[in-house]
Amino acid sequence: MSVAAKGAPLLSRVVGYSVAIANNAGNIIRDIMKKGELGIVEKESAQDLQTEADRAAQRSIITALQKYFPKSTIIGEEGEEEVKDLSGQVFDPTADSSVSGITCPSHLTSVAEEELVIWVDPLDGTAEYTQGLLDHVTVLIGIASGGKAVGGVIHQPYYNYQNPGSKLGRTIWGIVGGSVGGMPLTAPPDGKLIVTTTRSHSSSTVNDAIAALSPTEVLRVGGAGHKVMMLLEGKAHVYVFASPGCKKWDTCAPQAVLEAAGGVLSDIQGKVIPYHASAPHRNSTGVLASAAGQDHQAFLTKIPQHVKDNLKA
């Protein structure tokens, strides 16, 4: 039975539709890569890129969400210009009934549509996408209520791309306090401490935070979604980003999925990241995320005070 069945809680329906919407965005991203006409432009810097895949995926995601959840607030990375109507060419997610069992905790079953803020990153890891590091790329749809991340979808359009003949792509979803699905969850290995962090925004502050944890291994990869996936897959214990570089659309969906799976995501000071519609887009106080079963507070305690002091809201 589809999660869109009559009587399903609103949040379950939003997550279920978002799975289908993210899958469709993945098709768009792959099609544009195949054509080879990426349409790359710089935004804030040479490291902050936008491609035609970002733009087209955002148009598809947001027009669909606007049609089916018009009372919600939807904020996309690529700005207002990529939210324009497509003159009826709006993706219909209702035909996709492949996801079932999206359970919602009792305290979220009565959430109203106008209370929802949906944060969209149509292509997380754009720089890696242009460089052919396709396993770093994700599509992120995060749902917030009351300023908190409560639901999320992470789609990996190029999952299995290095295995010829395998089906491309997979989608992971979660509701905090409810269910998580789309992949088997794996605990990171005992006897090690593997840290994942940025590959393109390193600094002395980032490096000081990592060094303070005394990791046995550091994995520098692209995309917030990809880094949190490494925690879910058991490839890393903690994600450290002591920098103001990422935005709410980078972290809302990963936070919801990670916390649905038993992990924790906060800023570098241990404070809750707010996802109200009026919240600043930039996560100015960094990100610290830990896999399920890890001692998040112990990691926070080890972060040097000068690192925390350098990251002000």
Automatic annotation (TrEMBL):
GO terms for molecular function: 3'(2'),5'-bisphosphate nucleotidase activity; inositol-1,4-bisphosphate 1-phosphatase activity; metal ion binding. Its EC number is 3.1.3.57, 3.1.3.7. Coiled coil: none annotated. Pfam families: Inositol_P. It comes from Chionoecetes opilio (Atlantic snow crab). SUPFAM superfamilies: Carbohydrate phosphatase. Keywords: Hydrolase, Lithium, Magnesium, Metal-binding. The lineage of its organism: Eukaryota, Metazoa, Ecdysozoa, Arthropoda, Crustacea. Its cofactor is Mg(2+). PANTHER family: 3'(2'),5'-BISPHOSPHATE NUCLEOTIDASE 1. This is 3'(2'),5'-bisphosphate nucleotidase 1. Belongs to the inositol monophosphatase superfamily. Mg(2+) binds at E77, D121, L123, D124, D250. It is an enzyme of class 3 (hydrolase). InterPro entries: CysQ/Inositol_MonoPase, Inositol_monoP_metal-BS, Inositol_monophosphatase-like, Inositol_monophosphatase_CS.
